[in-house]
Amino acid sequence: MLGVSRSTYYAHRAAGPARAVRERAEEVLVGEIRVLHAGSRGAYGAPRVHAALRRAGRAVNSKKVERLMRKHRIAGITRRRRRGLTRQAKRAVFALDLKGRDFTAPRPGMRLVGDMTELVTLEGKLYLATCIDLATREVVGWAMADHHRAELPVAALRMAAGRGGLEYRCIMHTDRGSEYTSDEFRTEIGKLRMRQSMGRVGSCYDNAAAESWFAILKAEIGTTVWETREAARADVFRYIEVEYNRSRLRRHPDYGYVTPLETRSLLRQNLAPAA
């Protein structure tokens, strides 16, 4: 009646136990995928979930992970563009662009990028300034306040320097916002024996690495409006120091999927002189 041959029918019946085992194994794998996806605040797509599974000792094909995530509607977060804070000062003193949209660095502590963003709370806005190491993409300096005056990025820069490892004449690249063209920020750059670099005003591509990090933060942190500034501070602190620097996987051209701190360690090992 079904037009199926006798051999096909019996072959299907014989494969039943193996098929049941395979389906059960996929159910277990989907459970592991859901755990990793939830642990990333829903941010990881198939490539990072696959990398996390491999790091956990799970030998699985990337195409299978992609297929199962698509089948069970498990998707990573798509980032949205943000409105920047950049406001050029009327009597600004600009620095040359020493980067030229080259957001790479061979060594940690050689080149940093910085930017600021605003976070919305029911108590009012909270501002976040960051310094990111281009060799590792680690957030090495950050500061938060209820204002975005020059002392905010200065505090982030001091944290980056306080952690150590910045080279003499390290480049600090930012946009042309009034906070970065201020006397306070320029003076701090001089005290730390760094070099200041700036992109053009209104060109997001000239500081793309710093702006991209804020897009990651706002996509992955999972909260758009906090009840209090203190709650926002705690959440951002946890994201930067626990989730991003130490846990978030990023594809490195030489090392594969590694965290920023692992990248720092690997680069230092490669730069260490042979015994």
UniProtKB/TrEMBL annotation:
Boundaries of each Integrase catalytic domain copy? 104-268
Q: Which InterPro entries match?
A: HTH-like_dom, Integrase_cat-core, RNaseH-like_sf, RNaseH_sf, Transpos_IS3, Transposase_IS3/IS150/IS904
**One Pfam family in the UniProt entry:** HTH_21
Q: What transmembrane ranges does the database entry give?
A: none
Q: Which PROSITE patterns match?
A: INTEGRASE
Q: Which PANTHER family match?
A: TRANSPOSASE INSF FOR INSERTION SEQUENCE IS3B-RELATED, TRANSPOSASE INSO FOR INSERTION SEQUENCE ELEMENT IS911B-RELATED
The UniProt function text for this chain reads: Involved in the transposition of the insertion sequence.
The entry's protein name is Transposase
